[in-house]
Design a protein that fits this description.
There is one protein chain. β4, α5 and β5 form a beta-alpha-beta unit. Helix content is 35%, strand content 21%. α1 crosses α2 and α10 packs across α14. The chain is built from 15 helices and 18 strands. By secondary structure, the protein is of the alpha/beta class. Strands 17-8-11-12-7-13-14-15-16-18 form a 10-stranded mixed sheet, sandwiched between helices. It has a 6-stranded parallel sheet with strand order 3-2-1-4-5-6, with helices on both faces. A two-stranded antiparallel sheet has the order 9-10. The longest helix is centred in the last third of the chain and has 20 residues. Bound molecules: nicotinamide-adenine-dinucleotide (NAD). Its EC number is 1.1.1.49.
């Protein structure tokens, strides 16, 4: 990695403290940062470099996945951190920042590169990009890159306008749009599994796959973000970005050793093949939900409308489930079911692939129904499980599930932000959202936003601590399908069974 100045807007914010500094620290421990790598943190308040370094130290002590033990290595890490006052709207602050960056680059020598990381509210994205250009900060002698957090727009039009503004200061190749689900190690494995494993490669199509189920469930409610969340909802907050990215990553078919451009081209093809919904069809393919009071992990919790800061009668969606169809030769007639929600029974993100059962007579799920499943556990646990239907030797005529199971320990696995920051520093855009993907995602979602705005889709309720409204189950039942693994045990991975075939060492992966 070449000498780089990492210019961090929003250096005192929550994301910087919880994710960005711990990620940089772990990259440092793994010798993945150049010795002349340096950070200039920006914020409105006057803060001395030493006080800023102390804040970074607290953040890595609190949030690093690896325990902070060696004081000498922490000191060496913190030496790279400087702080500069900057108010996003003050043009003279950018000029002072430029001087500071140039001083730093002189010290580092080599061909200086600049990475601008926008960890600030989306209302500042355009102003910052404009001022980087106007002030001369954008005239790096080496490369320059812009890393930008979500949300990228509020709907199709605002996303297009934002992109237009950013493109006046940065080219598409210089923009790295973070979708942190793409940084999760299991998501980064998806294409490798199906490309390099002949069994999975052969099965990855509509001949063998019955349906795909993608779930991202949270147990938390709106917490302190009521003002923000009530204008956004599950559709914008999770579905348009993270969930559709998971769908793309699962459905792409890549030639071996694909370049980042090919990955992005194939993802775009998936989005283009997604059958679009008319506003009138939304009610038949999408379930909108909002939580009411309930119990989570034994504790009573209030309903959405009683949360502080939520206006009476809000129709905001805290849950969404949808059925999507990809109209291409590989996936035609394989429903992709996606659901995401707050205040659900368990915290988990997983993809379940249900295989077709060639000899099965009826399409409805029965009492003795054991599906053949491939399960990708994405978070909080990382793992892969193959569930096979097997004869139950103790009960004649019955079947039971046999599991082949891998799980990794969270301490061994790099955090999403480590992977993403590392890739951005190395100029690898494979796991960042290209503008084409973002625009096509908004285009797909826009009729749903319109239908929600006009209230032409019913708002169903679900008790906190459940798996969403009953209508979400009915969405699958219409085609003889069923959400699998909705059990308490699933929160801890698939339960151990007597005849599990578990490989001893997860590092075999
Ligand atoms: P935050 O409110 O905690 O921090 C915002 C930062 O912006 C602070 O450092 C603040 O000082 C700075 N700031 C505000 N106004 C400014 C101004 N006028 N001039 C200069 N600096 C100013 O927000 P956050 O949670 O850290 O989120 C930052 C970005 O990351 C947002 O776009 C958010 O949507 C996104 N994001 C956050 C999370 C998370 O877990 N926190 C997750 C995903 C995405």
């Amino acid at each position: 990695m070449e000498a780089t100045t990492f210019v961090l807007f929003g250096a005192t914010g929550d994301l910087a403290r919880r994710k960005i500094y711990p990620a940089l620290y772990n990259l440092f421990l793994d010798h993945k940062l150049n010795h002349s790598f340096s950070v200039i943190g920006l914020g409105r308040r006057e803060v001395a470099d030493e006080a800023f370094q102390a804040m970074v130290e607290r953040s890595i002590r609190d949030f690093s996945r690896r325990e902070v033990k060696d004081s000498a290595s922490v000191r060496s890490f913190l030496k790279s951190f400087r702080y500069n006052v900057l108010d996003v709207g003050h043009t003279e602050d950018y000029k002072k920042l430029l001087q500071r960056v140039e001083q730093q680059e002189k010290r580092a020598g080599g061909s200086p590169n600049r990475m601008f990381y926008l960890s600030v509210g989306p209302e500042f994205f355009e102003t910052i990009a404009f001022n980087i250009k106007q002030s001369g900060l954008g005239n790096a002698k080496g490369w320059k890159r812009l890393v930008i957090e979500k949300p990228f727009g509020h709907d199709l039009l605002s996303a297009q306008e934002l992109n237009q503004k950013l493109s006046e200061a940065f080219t598409e190749e210089e923009i790295y749009r973070i979708d942190h689900y793409l940084g999760k190690p299991m998501v980064q494995e998806l294409d490798v599994f199906q490309q390099s494993n002949p069994v999975l490669h052969a099965l990855w199509n509509n001949r063998y796959i019955s349906n795909v189920q993608i779930t991202a469930a949270e147990t938390v409610g709106v917490e302190e973000r009521a003002g923000y969340y009530d204008h956004v909802g599950a559709l914008r907050d999770m579905f348009q970005n993270h969930m559709l990215q998971l769908l793309m990553m699962l459905a792409i078919r890549l030639p071996k050793d694909s370049s980042p451009d090919e990955v992005r081209f194939k993802k775009k093809e998936v989005m283009e093949a997604l059958e679009s919904l008319d506003e009138g069809d939304v009610q038949f393919n999408v379930v909108r939900g909002q939580y009411t009071a309930g119990t989570i992990q034994g504790k009573p919790v209030q309903g959405y409308l009683s949360e502080p800061g939520i206006p009476a009668g809000s129709t905001n969606d805290t849950f969404i489930a949808a059925r999507l169809q990809i109209d291409d030769p590989f996936w035609k007639d394989v429903p992709f079911y996606i659901r995401t929600g707050k205040r659900m029974k368990e915290k988990s993100t997983r993809i379940v692939i249900e295989f077709k059962e060639p000899l099965k007579q009826s399409s409805s799920a029965g009492e003795n129904d054991i599906p053949n499943l491939l399960v990708f556990e994405i978070s909080p646990n990382e793992g892969l499980t193959l569930q096979l239907k097997a004869r139950d030797p103790q009960h004649k005529g019955k079947f039971k599930a046999m599991h082949i199971d891998f799980h990794t320990s969270s301490i061994e696995v790099p955090e999403a932000y480590e992977n993403l920051i590392h890739d951005a520093l190395h100029g690898d855009p494979s796991f960042f959202a290209h503008w084409n993907e973002v625009e096509l995602s908004w285009k797909w979602v826009q009729p749903i936003l319109n239908a929600f705005d006009k209230n032409t889709v019913p708002l169903h309720t679900y008790a906190a601590g459940s798996f969403g409204p009953a209508e979400s189950d009915q969405l699958l039942a219409k085609k003889g399908h069923h959400w699998w693994l909705d059990t308490a045990e699933a929160a801890n991975g698939v339960e151990e069974e007597e005849n599990d075939v578990s490989l001893p060492d997860a590092s075999n992966f």
